[in-house]
Amino acid sequence: MAFVQVIEYESDRPADVRALSEEWGQQQLSNAPARLTVAEDRERPGHFVMVAEFDNYEQAMAHSAQPETGRYAERMRSLAKGEPRYVNLEIVQREL
Fold first, then answer.
1. What is the pLDDT of residue 24?
2. Taking the CA atoms of the chain, what radius of gyration do you get in angstroms?
């Protein structure tokens, strides 16, 4: 079953967030998300949402356990104001 992790955070350094996200997207890690989307809320500048789509929960947890993922999360946390909010979702239906 597909799995999605959503991470919400605030940052007053949008250029740095974009640069780090681009750098991260170029890395080829094992167990990488099938798709990674980073978006900034048009109605709330500085509010970001990252959506990482995985084939399944086990793949997501293996990815999260990698040291590179931990280093990226720490770098992203240093750009955030406050703690990020994580939402872990099992996909139960997908429309194309």
1. 79
2. 13
The set of residues, in sequence order, having a beta carbon less than 8 Å from that of 3 and lying 6+ positions away, is: 53, 54, 55, 56, 57, 59, 60, 88, 89, 90, 91
Residue 12 Cα to chain centre, angstroms: 18
* Residue partners of 18: CB distance under 8 A and separation at least 6: 38
Contacts of 63 (CB under 8 A, 6+ apart): 29, 30, 31, 32, 33, 54, 69
pLDDT at residue number 17: 83
Cα–Cα distance measured from residue 57 to residue 54, given in angstroms and rounded to the nearest whole number: 7
pLDDT in tens, 34-81: 888 889 999 999 999 999 999 999 999 999 899 988 888 899 999 999
Q: Of 50, 42, 44, give the one whose Cα is nearest residue 17.
A: 50
Token couple for 91: 């996909």
